[in-house]
Amino acid sequence: MSPSASLARGVAPSPPGTLHARTVIDDLSAPPRPGRIVRFGRGAMPDVDLEVGVDDLRVSRRQGELTYHAGQWWLRNTGRQLVRLPRGRMMHLSTEPIPLATGYTPLFVKGSGFREHLVELYVTGRNDPWPVSDRYAGNERPVTWPLDDDERLLLVVLGRRYLLYEEDPRPLTYTEAAKELSYLHPEAGWNERRIEYRFEALRRRLDRTGFMYPLMRDKSQGCPGDSALLHNLLKGLVESTTLVPPDLELMEDDEDRPDSAS
Predict the structure, then answer these.
(1) Residue 257 pLDDT > 70, yes or no?
(2) Which residues are bridge partners to 37 per DSSP?
(3) Region Disordered: start and end of each range (predicted)?
(4) Which of 70, 172, 201, 248 is most exposed, with minimal Cβ within 10 Å?
């Protein structure tokens, strides 16, 4: 398997628990043998088994390692730079090792400036051999969530900045959104209470479908406010292309729009 091969390209079947890993310049496969350690970083063999960020002095020579024990691969950050996992989870040198789930896990090593170096990991499961894809097959459509007309309009107003792909966007407040909606559709009777009710019902419905970000308050971990939950909702809907920039056409482009919603 060449370094330029796709992670999803089919290779010979491997036993459950086999670790497959690759970077832009290197790749490897490691059997699930107790005590086996796979090291990755800027260094070269025999210091590391998988090279990553070799031209970036911010990456440690031994940035991290994966150890197989207790029937799982465990990831540990052994370098000075942070390692970022899916859902924004960070690992520091002091962070306890975490187990890898079967399937695909990308991790990013922080580098110099805005650079991040990708390490792709794949652990085969019992009924989930190394994935095989057909480059000539049709693309899989992204998972999207159904929204009625009122929900879509409400979310577009609340999340206009997300649909403009602004950096670090934040939703409008209910007060701002109510003014905007009252201006756009005065006959619909939008107000803060109605917005709160529709948002509550929507996040409960989507939470039951396995939404990618938390939509409900978890008392055991504190109680995030509506703004944080709304941020999660809008972020997930935009990332999944449930909401897309053409949806902004639902809003009238008028210079007299209330200043508070700008």
Answers:
(1) no
(2) 67
(3) 1-21
(4) 70
Helix (H), strand (E) counts: the chain: 5, 11
Q: Amino acid letter at 67?
A: T
Question: How far is 69 from 55, CA to CA, in rounded Å?
Answer: 32
User: With left for phi above 0 and alpha for psi between -120 and 50, is residue 213 left, alpha or beta?
Assistant: beta
pTM of the model: 0.61
Domain boundaries, the chain: 19-123, 149-261
Work out the number of other CB atoms within 10 angstroms of the CB of residue 88: 7
CATH topology of domain 19-123: Tumour Suppressor Smad4 (2.60.200)
- Among residues 72, 64, 78, the alpha carbon closest in space to that of 34 is found at 72
Give the phi and the psi of residue 253 in degrees, each rounded to 5.
-90, 90
Yes or no: say if 229 and 214 are a contact pair by the CB < 8 Å rule. yes
Is 178 in contact with 191 (CB distance < 8 Å)? yes
Quote the CA–CA distance of 92 and 196 in Å, as a whole number: 38
- Could you tell me where the beta strands, DSSP code E, fall in the chain? 19-22, 27-30, 37-41, 50-51, 64-69, 72-77, 83-84, 90-91, 98-99, 103-110, 116-123
- What average pLDDT does this structure show over 199-214? 91
**Mean local confidence (pLDDT), 43-52:** 92
Amino acid code (one letter) for 137 = A
